[in-house]
């Protein structure tokens, strides 16, 4: 019986739940014996000139081995995103200017970790404050420049040279436009950032770090240090979550490495939670202007999306993500005319990068809110408006007005499934009853239909499968799990071909000497690239084993089959184990799979919320979802990914927001101020099954890691707005906190009395 599609329990969990994970800060490698501990003195101001730095008192503090300023570092400032304005570089430790609260300014190295903060407190830095720039519209005026030499706060843009068509909406009976905030979020991963570094006698650097991609981290750190990549060995221990914020390397990784060479001793660094909340890259942070037009019969004919995106102080991966927002702008809809552009700006805040969905949730949030506002304007049910505009299954494959090559989709089927499972008509009837009775707790129903791109530009992945003489199997993969369950899933894929139990299969990742090529784990790419590479390698290994066994068994290759870890002659008891073949000669295959194209998973969500109109508090009562990612390898893992994504989607809609005051001070630097839900605040999720295969890989699979995040957010936001729409409310920006809901109700009431 095939192992594919079965609910195999995660092999990772017993170790995590018993001994616990081994994170970077837990390492006991003998090469780190006597390591120094790094504490960073960080800027308390968002924007200021540095007038003086005095470290003498700190250097004499107990346990201090070195105190290093930027003047001592011989590395050139780095452009962290190649496509950004070339003047927007980041110094490893600035000597002239700081651009966000939490920017590292001085490095303190001590014998013991506890000595670091005491010494850091003795560093005296004088600053000449400059105006902060937190608001994107203010940044766009260039009145206060972060980089005077750039002459602008615009880092880069997409479609900026294309003029919008002033006649785009001329033929529309109805046009609705609104400014929408897709708020800044913190990844808030279980494990904060960490790195440990040591230089060997051979001149090579070994760097342990918490990252989603060891190979990219190796290449980035090598480039920043000005050494060949072959001189850098990156090892990724267990990683306690990333959600996109740990894609590639952080500048601190290069700093730790440089300090290890400078002092001639290993160096360890692990940040506090507050440092993480102010220093680790954050996500989303778009100000969107949506305009939607069409006819009163519900047909949408024109859509425009204009984006201001926040890069933070130093452009990083976040600067490229609006490209995906533009690409996915039309979503699941067949809209005749679509325009979009995006301008990326620097502000005196923490840099932005990927956050679960990375550019695609922002596109979905925009078009789904636009659809709701259009439906409200013409007085039509929002589900019906969506149905009338969906791309149809027979249109696939196709290239959208956003330029995305959609592979497959059955959007109407997904919408019908969630509407039926939710009892949509009954929900609307209950909503009417509560409204008619003027009840305090009102019902809101939100609908979203979404499509996303998975695999991004990382279509290729490497894998190796080897059977050992003892019958065990080693799988090497270029993907880099941080909670996804690859050790289970990749073992299943190898087992399917080899017939060897997954308890005998070990999956290894995250070591650049062992696995020199790899694209890591992000963008929901793993199964459709890395998993397929493993599946392909195991299949090729079977063919190699059959070729070798044919001579030994004196049989035709076509008469051989592999089952239960043996090569057998069909219809006979004649055979040889794979282990025996490996004993005679190494039995191993290296393989590369390149799909050449991304996939486009899709789905539909219905969210049911209750809103107390007196307090403004919204509670999610139910959420019903279809998250179609093609055939499912392991339902248990798939459901776990869906659950996590939906939870984060709900959290953005209701709770999460990184907030800065007008002076650029972060107001959400601890978990006391940054809200996200526990299991107690969430309902059980209704997960409907649907599987539409893709043609771009042999298993027909697509990515699942981000789907829930993309679909749940607009569904819940729309549900909250829907609950109070009868009071005149048309939109509430996320997070739809009790205060925001209460203010929207009162503003609508005040408007209605004029």
From TrEMBL:
Stored PANTHER family: ALDEHYDE OXIDASE 1-RELATED, XANTHINE DEHYDROGENASE
Domain Aldehyde oxidase/xanthine dehydrogenase a/b hammerhead: 19-131
Record keywords, A-Z: Molybdenum
Protein's organism: Pseudonocardia oceani
Taxonomy, superkingdom: Bacteria
UniProt protein name: Xanthine dehydrogenase family protein molybdopterin-binding subunit
SMART domains with a match to the protein in the record: Ald_Xan_dh_C
InterPro entries associated with the record: Ald_Oxase/Xan_DH_a/b, Ald_Oxase/xanthine_DH-like, AldOxase/xan_DH_MoCoBD1, AldOxase/xan_DH_MoCoBD2
């Amino acid at each position: 019986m095939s192992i594919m599609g079965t609910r195999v329990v995660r092999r990772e969990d017993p170790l995590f739940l018993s001994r616990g994970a081994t994170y970077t800060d837990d390492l006991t490698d003998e090469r780190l014996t006597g390591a120094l501990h790094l504490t960073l003195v960080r800027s308390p101001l968002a924007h200021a000139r540095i007038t003086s730095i005095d470290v003498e008192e700190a250097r004499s503090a107990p346990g201090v081995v070195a105190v290093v300023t930027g003047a001592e570092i011989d590395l050139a400032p780095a452009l962290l995103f190649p496509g950004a304005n070339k003047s927007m570089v980041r110094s490893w430790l600035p000597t002239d200017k700081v651009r966000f609260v939490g920017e590292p300014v001085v490095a303190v190295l001590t014998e013991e970790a506890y000595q670091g903060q005491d010494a850091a407190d003795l560093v005296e830095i004088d600053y000449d404050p400059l105006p902060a720039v937190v608001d994107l519209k203010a940044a766009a005026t260039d009145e206060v420049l972060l980089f005077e030499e750039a002459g602008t706060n615009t880092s880069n843009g997409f479609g900026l040279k294309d003029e919008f068509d002033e006649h785009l909406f001329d033929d529309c009976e109805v046009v609705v436009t609104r400014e929408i905030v897709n708020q800044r979020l913190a990844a808030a991963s279980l494990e904060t950032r960490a790195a440990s570094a040591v230089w060997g006698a051979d001149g090579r650097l070994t760097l342990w770090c918490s990252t989603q991609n060891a190979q990219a981290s190796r290449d980035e750190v090598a480039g920043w240090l000005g050494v060949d990549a072959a001189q850098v060995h990156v090892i990724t221990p267990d990683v306690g979550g990333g959600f996109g914020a740990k894609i590639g390397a952080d500048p601190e990784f290069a700093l730790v490495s440089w300090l290890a060479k400078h002092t001639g001793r290993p160096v360890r660094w692990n940040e506090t939670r507050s440092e993480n909340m102010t220093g680790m890259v954050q996500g989303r942070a778009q100000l969107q202007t949506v305009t939607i037009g069409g006819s009163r019969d519900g047909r949408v004919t024109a859509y425009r999306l204009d984006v201001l995106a926040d890069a933070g102080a130093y452009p990083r991966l976040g600067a490229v993500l609006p490209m995906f927002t533009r690409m996915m702008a039309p979503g699941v809809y067949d809209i005749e005319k679509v325009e979009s552009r995006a301008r990326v700006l620097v502000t005196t805040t923490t840099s932005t990068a990927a956050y679960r969905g990375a550019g695609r949730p922002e596109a979905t949030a925009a078009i789904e809110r636009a659809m709701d506002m259009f439906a409200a304007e013409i007085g039509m049910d929002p589900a019906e408006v969506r149905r009338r505009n969906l791309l149809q299954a027979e249109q696939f494959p196709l290239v959208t007005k956003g330029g995305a090559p959609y592979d497959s989709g059955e959007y109407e089927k997904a919408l019908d499934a969630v509407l039926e499972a939710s009892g949509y008509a009954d929900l609307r009837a209950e909503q009417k009853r509560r409204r008619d009775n003027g009840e305090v707790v009102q019902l809101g129903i939100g609908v979203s239909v979404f499509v996303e791109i998975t695999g991004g530009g990382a279509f290729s992945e490497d894998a190796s499968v080897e059977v050992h003489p003892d019958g065990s199997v080693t799988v090497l993969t270029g993907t880099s799990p941080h909670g996804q369950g690859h050790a289970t899933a990749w073992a299943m894929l190898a087992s399917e071909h080899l017939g060897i139990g997954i308890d005998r299969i070990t999956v290894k990742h995250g070591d650049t000497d062992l696995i020199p090529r790899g694209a890591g784990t992000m963008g929901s790419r793993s199964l459709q690239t890395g998993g397929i590479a493993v599946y392909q390698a195991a299949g090729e290994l079977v063919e190699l084993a059959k070729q070798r066994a044919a001579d030994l068994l004196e049989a035709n290759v076509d008469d051989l089959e592999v089952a239960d870890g043996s090569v057998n002659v069909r219809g006979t008891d004649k055979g040889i184990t794979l282990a025996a073949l490996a004993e005679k000669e190494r039995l191993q295959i290296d393989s590369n799979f390149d799909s050449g194209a991304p996939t486009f998973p899709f789905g539909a969500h219905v969210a049911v919320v209750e809103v107390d109109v007196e307090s403004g508090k919204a509670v999610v009562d139910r959420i019903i979802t279809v998250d179609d990612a093609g055939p499912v390898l392991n339902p248990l893992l798939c459901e776990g990914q869906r659950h996590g994504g939906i939870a984060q989607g709900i959290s953005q809609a209701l709770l999460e927001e990184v907030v800065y005051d007008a002076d650029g001070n972060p107001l959400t630097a601890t978990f006391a101020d940054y809200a996200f839900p526990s299991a107690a605040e969430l309902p059980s999720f209704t997960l409907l099954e649907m599987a539409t295969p893709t043609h771009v890989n042999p298993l027909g699979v697509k990515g699942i890691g981000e789907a829930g995040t993309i679909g749940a957010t607009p569904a819940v936001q729309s549900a909250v707005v829907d609950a109070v729409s009868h009071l005149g409310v048309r939109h509430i920006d996320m997070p739809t906190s009790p205060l925001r809901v209460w203010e929207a109700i009162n503003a609508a009431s005040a408007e209605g009395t004029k």
